[in-house]
């Protein structure tokens, strides 16, 4: 990938000028027949794609109020137009959130509204042609569904919802994206996104036990498929072997060990990630989530805890209760949900984020730390988009910002914030989310990381920051790949529980 | 003759406006929102949602965060429009309600600030590259329509007075199915024609943002997915099919 270089930092982050067509192209690799068919989609672009696409659009409009309202409500005010990291990094006007929406909206207007049928030119309505379909494929695979634009829209229009709808339409006509569909196929076949089979997983975990024993002298367990454990941990499969993810997995295990919590992983559902959300397909989203319900029922666990993964936490926090009943407050007649909810311990939030778990333990003084173990680091925190804008932790709105920061401050001495208009709900996506973490999109990923890299550079220059913590597997993978291209050390990025792991005192309490 | 034409136009336009809007609102309300998607941090209580929505509708909170210029022009326009509309109640009530009489003088100036706000929005549309890029002809026309309404209304106040007593009688008559003569005054005809056009296009255009904002799931949902199971009818059906 020698030809991919980082765009120059903007000296003052001014709004970039437009470069029409700069990201035109064929988009990421198209999924093969096999990959599409495994998910129940047509293998290739179907003959009658035009009619099927319009029919699907109508179907989605009747099923999703978000799509229906968002198609009508946009006033083209442009408030969102400069808020997308992909627009900032690529300057392609079609990456402005409103312009991205308009790729779909123009077709909606043509086929579903009276003015679009009568005066298409006047209201910017277009026929659905092959060019338009290709344009959808290209530009709806340049959106990470990060929802930053929705924060600023006066009507809360969320381009992520529109991207999901567009991808769902594309899949329906046999025009799926390789990376996402391949991953979903692996979850169904093997149980996790990385295609790590059960025995290999068991080996990995045993290896980890040895490593931790060597490093600390203590027997920290990484249990799998333990019936009757209190906690089922569901974590992104990258945690099992990717760097730096694995250091966070060690951190979770140490927290469980130090607090005497019985816990287990599940070989059947060794994956928290759920790419069903990325392709906007409710059935896939639900089927993938159901594995966790099934594992929880089979293992008889009392709590379900989710590891450091951004979109997985959004799915878990916001959707699991709806999809699978993992949560609380189901109707007494709702047998499907009650079956599971009766089993779960409702003194705790269901599901809980690992950061909520650890922070509770810190507050209960069941953990001790040697903060100096992290003294070599000056740490900043990158809010991951799905956690920041699609979920919560704790009891109060904004807990998803406070709790990870509180943990960092509890385990380390040096913490600084990045610029306020790029953190919390205004955080920038890492550039690799939403099913775009694939090498065929590396150019886009590098450009999309620009706004985050600029701000990181600023904290490096001003405060000597040398560690950026984050709680998302995709952020970690994206940054380790992209940061060297911007001239940073790839080891600068890591998980919050990696810091916990460094400082935690085992065997004291 | 003009009176009769305008009477019919107003009846039809109002009918279209009301029926069209109710139809839209009904279709938004009936479309399910299968998943919890509030843009977080979001309120966790109903009261909190009402507050969030109020801040959004009254102060344009999100727009304020996004862009000060657009916010300033947009807010000035909408606030002025509200005052102007309220001021116009005096053409439909007899005796005029006390508070409507009270805001009369402000309402007059609001016509001017409304024009300023609209002008600001149009300048942005014309001269800011990004916004020019996303603008369709109808976006420009919509602003021109509103500016035309404001300008023709103001001219009747400041340039060539129209017989407001007769105008009022026309509208009071209209409300009692009793058509009265409308002054044959060019500015008035222009003003009223543009208003009729606005009523007609409203339910078919981006002006649907007005009811739409209240139905936006990212803004009107409570953030409580772990505490309550949220299930739409079509999603619930999937459960009865399989376990
Ligand atoms: S959701 Fe994120 S990536 Fe997509 S258009 Fe909005 S800001 Fe850009
Ligand atoms: S901020 Fe909202 S209304 Fe304004 S252009 Fe963007 S999507 Fe449309």
Automatic annotation (TrEMBL), chain A:
Bilayer-crossing regions: none
Report the GO molecular function annotations: 4 iron, 4 sulfur cluster binding; metal ion binding; oxidoreductase activity
Q: Record's Gene3D superfamilies? A: Alpha-helical ferredoxin
Q: Which domain of life is it from?
A: Bacteria
Q: Which Pfam families match?
A: CCG, Fer4_8
Domain spans labelled 4Fe-4S ferredoxin-type? 65-94, 133-163
Could you list this entry's UniProt keywords, alphabetically sorted. Answer: 4Fe-4S, Electron transport, Iron, Iron-sulfur, Metal-binding, Transport
Name of this chain's protein? 4Fe-4S ferredoxin-type domain-containing protein
Q: Which organism is it from?
A: Sideroxydans lithotrophicus (strain ES-1)
Task: Recall the taxonomic lineage recorded for the source organism.
Answer: Bacteria, Pseudomonadati, Pseudomonadota, Betaproteobacteria, Nitrosomonadales
TrEMBL record, chain B:
Q: Could you tell me which InterPro entries the record lists for this protein?
A: Heme-iron_electron_transfer (IPR051936), NarG-like_domain (IPR023234), NarG-like_sf (IPR036197)
What UniProt keywords apply to this chain's record, in alphabetical order? Cell membrane, Electron transport, Membrane, Oxidoreductase, Transmembrane, Transmembrane helix, Transport
Pfam families xref list: Nitrate_red_gam
Annotated ranges, domain NarG-like: 73-210
> Where found, per UniProt?
Cell membrane
State the Gene Ontology BP annotations.
Answer: anaerobic electron transport chain
Q: Which residues cross the membrane?
A: 6-25, 68-86, 106-128, 140-160, 180-202
Q: Read off the Gene3D superfamilies from this record.
A: Transmembrane di-heme cytochromes, Chain C (1.20.950.20)
What this protein is called in its record is Nitrate reductase gamma subunit
Organism lineage reads as:
Bacteria, Pseudomonadati, Pseudomonadota, Betaproteobacteria, Nitrosomonadales
